[in-house]
Amino acid sequence: MARPSSSFAIDARDLVKTYPGGPGKPRIQALDSLSFGAESGTIFGLLGPNGAGKSTSVKILSTLSRADSGSASIAGIDVIRHPDRVRKAIGFVAQKQVSDPMDTGRENLVLAGQLQGMRASAAKARAIELLDRFSLADAADRQVKTYSGGMARKLDVAIGLMHRPQVLFLDEPTTGLDPEARAEMWAELEAMASHEQMTVLLTTHYLDEADRLAGRLAIVDHGRVVVEGTPEQLKDALHGDAVILELAPEVAVSDGLRAIGDALAEIVVEGRTIRGRAAVGAVALPRVLAALDDAGVGVASATVSRPSLDDVYLKHTGHSFVASKENAS
Amino acid sequence: MTIALNSTVTHTGILTARALRAFFRMPSYLIINLIQPIIWLLLFGQLFKSVVDIPGFTGGQSYLVFLTPGIVMMMALFGSSWAGTSYIQDMDRGVMDRFLTSPTSRTALILATMIYQAVLTVIQTLVVLGVAWLAGARFGGGAVGILVLLLSAVLLTFVFAPFSNAIALLAKQQTALIAISQVLSFPLMFLSSAIMDTSLSPAWVRDVARYSPFQWAVDAGRGALNSSPDWPTIWADLGLLAGLTVVMTWLATRAFRAYQRSV
């Protein structure tokens, strides 16, 4: 587990955090020795249901809260020993709206910049740049209470970016947004990652969001990281892309099965459709098609589908993602 | 150290400006804040008009003149004990957490609400004085008297605004803040000479009032409006208020740590 401290922009090691459970009740374990590391310049995703410990991790790493034990550093700065220095290096977009509804979008941005030590003129110029980038220029001088949910959330991200932080925390940036606003936010976040030289810690309980935005991700359950890797690695580790073959009308399914042999596992036949799994579908499919061709078995269509993060989640936590989301309070 | 001081001053300025912007953007809130003192002044002024005729009343011949500094301090007390409301709103959103994860000076967060409340107190005090003057009240203290009255009201605000902020940070709920401000401000008001000369009250009320910062402010403000003020007593009261301001501000700054332990 020994890692050089400088290589990770966000480095969390064995974080433990408990909260009082109320009178006469045991303490609630929010984090149970949680560890992960995010490399500089990447988007790192923390994926898990509500109550898994994602927000608690963000609060500790952003100096809002303190871990009971364990250590953490941001851009090489220890969060417990030097919270003041960490606060200059980070942007923080909480799960809840971080803008002031009574101020305009521009006022929110300039205030955030000035609180970070920017001069008024520099803060104003940066605000204009970000309002343009997030397509908020037309609404810049309106009070935020008149903004739609999607606009307010984009402003939140812009507020976090004002002082060009080295590390940006995005705690569930699209929760509560409608699908259209969510898609727009994803596009903005992808563009942002290429514009700004920084590391992003993204928490989400949307599998598709983590899949699309995160370069690496850790699945968190009951306050622990249960598995960590790139979305592709995690899915590859399932040893099973789905390979679906639909045979031509004139051939016998039994001939097809004989030709395939053990090139696919877990074969299920439904009518003229053969479903099987292969470690890497893209490697297995040409072999299967060649074997079928040699045996003179015609194929109407062939599909490879990648395993979803939902499959990964199920494997590592032992419960389905949808079910655990519903169980979480 | 100078850098820290600089940023505290800058942060106090921009955070105070933020609070004042919000205030002036809510015309209804502005109007309520201006009408409220007028209602209190005229209502109590009429209701207790003949109090001055009770034998043993030592507050002069005009109840309106007696009452005016009392109403000024009442407004300052009620307003400042609500100061924590803006923190509750910031906590309900992610605004407070964003401030606390940035280099925002904790002291500036407290000072900004104190100065903002003090601005409201000054506006309300001037309205009360204007209405009292229109209703026929005349004060012997002149401009100096009015300035010292304003100073007393501002110091009272400086005591209770950070207290309210500390409660907000500890309780984190609007209902708790309402409960505490009601439980505190009404007894403080009635256990004082704000609306009734305590020489007519039971002795225990006078004893309690002696240790009440609200009473210190009422005494100082009323004394300063007199044609022959007892300055040593007034400055002693103001000194006590100033000392308590320092203590309360320090406590409120400490309350951020308690809040951060609870999130």
Walk me through this protein's architecture.
- The complex is a heterodimer of chains A (329) and B (263).
- Chain A is of the alpha/beta class.
- Helix content of chain A is 37%, strand content 27%.
- Chain A has twelve helices and 14 strands.
- In chain A, strand 12 and strand 13 form a beta hairpin.
- The relative contact order of chain A is 0.13.
- The C terminus of chain A is likely disordered.
- The longest helix of chain B is centred in the C-terminal third of the chain and has 32 residues.
- With 263 residues, chain B is mainly alpha-helical.
- Chain B contains eleven helices and no strands.
- At the A-B interface, helix 2, strand 6 and helix 3 of A face helix 1 and helix 5 of B.
Short description:
The complex is a heterodimer of chains A (329) and B (263). Chain A is of the alpha/beta class and 329 residues long. Chain A contains 12 helices and 14 strands.
How far do the termini of chain A sit from each other? 34 Å
Q: Major sheet of chain A, described briefly?
A: 6 strands, mixed
Number of strands of chain B: 0
Radius of gyration of chain B: 19 Å
In terms of structural class, how would the helical and strand content of chain B be classed?
mainly alpha
Number of helices of chain B: 11
Series of secondary-structure elements of chain B, N-terminal to C-terminal: HHHHHHHHHHH
Helix and strand pattern of chain A: EEEHEEHEHHHEHEHEEHEHEEHEHH
Shape of chain A: elongated
Distance between the termini of chain B: 29 Å
Low-confidence stretches of chain B: none
Helix-residue proportion of chain B: over 70%
Strand-pairing-aware structural class of chain A: alpha/beta
Strand content of chain B: under 5%
**Anisotropy-based shape of chain B:** elongated
Helical residue percent band of chain A? 25-40%
Greatest chain-chain interface? A-B, 33 and 26 residues
State the oligomer.
heterodimer
Poorly predicted sequence stretches spanning 5 or more consecutive residues of chain A: 322-329
C-alpha Rg of chain A, in Å? 24 Å
